[in-house]
Each structure stands twice: as C-alpha cells, then as structure tokens.
Design brief:
337 residues, alpha/beta, Spore Coat Polysaccharide Biosynthesis Protein SpsA, Chain A, nine-stranded mixed beta sheet, 15 helices, 42% helix, 18% strand, Nucleotide-diphossugar_trans, Glyco_trans_2-like, glycosyltransferase activity, Glycosyl transferase family 2, transferase
C-alpha cells in the first residue's frame, strides 16, 4: 500500500460520462500531487464505470469504487469511510478544478489552522464549458459565513477541502437531507470549526438543466429550511429532532417532530420566496406550497408578480388560483420557529 497521502479526493459519479474524463483530468493535473482519488461509481449505466477503471489502471492515485445506485450521500459517506488522508477534498464528476486549487487551499489552511473547511471562489460554466459568470460572493471568513446562514450563498460544495476528523465527528452527510446534504453539513460543521472560501477563483462549476438544484428544487428548499430550524435547536441547546432520520416527514408533520406548533408554517414561509422564479417549482408541488403559505397568512412579497409569471409559463388556471388566493386571504404577522 502506498504511504498515507495528504489529501483524499472524494467524488461520486452517476451517468456522468460526457464530462467525467475532463473532471478527472483536472484533479490529476493538480500542481499538488500527494493525494488519493476515490471515485465512487454509483451504479452508472452509461459507461462511466469503464472511464473510471481506465484511469485507475493508469494512475495509482485513482481508486475505483463500484456500487449499486444509492445516491450521492451514500457515495460520499463511503468515500469518507475509505479515505486514508487527514484531509478530504470534494469534487463533482461534471466540474473542473483549476491546476493550483489544492496548492492554494493548502497554503491557506497552513496559515490558518483553525479553519477546518475551505472552499474557493468559482466560475459558472455551461454544458459546453464556457464561462457564464464569475462568482466571488462566498464568505471569506468565518464570521461572514455565520452571518450568511440565514439563506445567503455559503460555499461551493465540490470546491471544499475539509479536515476528515471534524467531518467524521459530526456524522458525515445525513441521508434525510438528500439534495441539500451540503447545507445541512455546513450548519453542523459551523458549530465545530471555522469555515470560509478563499478569494482565488479556482473552480469551475457546471450549470445544466438536469442538475439536482433544478430538478429537485422544491424538495431541496424544504430540506434546507428544516436543516436551518434543526440548527437553531442545536444552538439553543435542545436535541436535534432530525438526528438519525433516514427521511424527512411531510411538512404538516414537522410540528410533531419538533414538539411545538408553528414549525411547519415557518418552513413554508422560508421556502415560499425561493420558489417564485422557478418554473419547475411553480408547475409542480411548489405551487401547492405557495397556496398553503398564503392560507397561513404568509408574506405576499412578489406573489402578485408571480401570477403574471404563471401566465407567461402558460399556466392560466394556476395564475387564476393564485390571484383568488391572494385576493381572499389576509397577511398575518410573520412567525419564526
């Protein structure tokens, strides 16, 4: 067995063949090369497994781990379990790490040993790899990170390097928070270590219509809201009601889960504003959440404009239902869980 590496790179891959080789090459081309690269083939059916095996055969740093499809959370937790290094670097199978990413992140961590999670500024790229926008709004120190926990951008998940011992201490990724597993993890880690991003733009994050944040927007937003309120429970010194769950209950069951009234209403109030510009959400169960939010007396900011947006989306019946709901109910004082 090779000596213990400095970094274990953890990447899950599911039917990622179009971009997989480019993602792998971007890691193998790092100026800092003392790492192992754990790639979990999560039951791919498109040839991704063959791509991974080919790289494992030619570079001893690549470790191919094959499993039946179990999802990203299971893939990442498996990589963490099998990692041999004290640091875990994340990577996704459709993104690109610039060559000096690891070198610069490690330099920051050496100069700031109290930081256990460090990401980078990023560029968004499209499906053809063209840069579409530059993102440098992620918090550059822990205090700013904590201030952003109320819903502002925190850190680019696949760009981070984390201390493995802290990651293991908080239980890794949690299955109940599928599609928002990173946000839940940052909330828990923020109570145990300092977190930030460095200002260097060292990562290219690919945006596509098929990615999780688009396809599962409503579920992701609900899970993130529940994670936030679970975080507030921990901060207040109360038990985390989501601890140990394999799956989150329906919104209407959250009052029982948290042991007090108002949590379900507060979750809907937190989620509703984030759905107003998502056509996918407005065409799906996100619309029913908006109607329930209005019935609860929730805030109306932007909702009248959403009726016009629904017309543009060719959803006249939903536009009419939303307008009627707004006209026949009144806004009440906002609640907090």
């Amino acid at each position: 067995m090779r000596p213990e590496p400095r970094i274990s790179v953890a990447m899950g891959a599911y039917n990622a063949q179009p971009y997989l080789a480019e993602a792998i090459e971007s890691i193998l081309s790092q100026t800092f090369g003392d790492f192992e690269f754990l790639i979990v083939n999560d039951g791919s059916t498109d040839g991704s497994g063959d791509v991974i095996d080919a790289y494992a055969a030619r570079d001893p740093r690549v470790r191919a781990l094959h499993q039946p499809n179990a999802g990203l959370v299971a893939s990442l937790n498996r990589a963490i379990d099998e990692a041999r290094a004290p640091l875990i670097a994340r990577m996704d199978a459709d993104d690109i790490s610039l060559p000096d990413r690891f070198e610069k992140q490690l330099a920051f961590m050496a100069a700031n040993p109290d930081y256990g999670v460090v990401g980078t500024a990023t560029d968004d790229i499209d499906e053809q790899g063209r840069i579409t926008r530059n993102l440098d709004y992620h918090p550059l120190d822990h205090e700013s990170f904590l201030e952003a926990l109320d819903g502002r951008p925190l850190i680019c998940h696949p760009s981070v390097i984390m201390h493995r011992d802290v990651l293991v201490a908080v239980g890794g990724y949690r299955r109940a928070f599928v599609h928002c597993e990173d946000y839940d993890l940052w909330l828990r880690l923020s109570q145990h270590t300092r977190i930030c991003s460095i200002k260097d733009r060292l990562f290219q994050y690919r945006r596509s219509w098929t990615q999780v944040s688009t396809a599962f927007n409503v579920q992701q937003q609900i899970g993130a809201a529940v994670a936030f309120f679970a975080h507030q429970e921990r901060i207040a010194g109360r038990p985390d009601p989501t601890e140990g769950l394999d799956k989150l209950p329906p919104i209407d069951a959250l009052d029982d889960l948290f042991g007090r009234p108002g949590v379900a209403q507060a979750v809907r109030a937190r989620v509703a504003p984030n759905l107003l510009h998502s056509g996918e959400a407005l065409r799906s169960d996100g619309f029913d959440l908006l109607l329930r939010h209005i019935a609860d007396g929730g805030a109306r900011d932007g909702l009248w404009r959403t009726t016009a947006r629904l017309m543009k989306l060719r959803e006249p019946k939903r536009a009419a239902r939303l307008a009627i709901a707004l006209a026949t109910s009144s806004e009440r004082p906002r609640l907090s869980a």
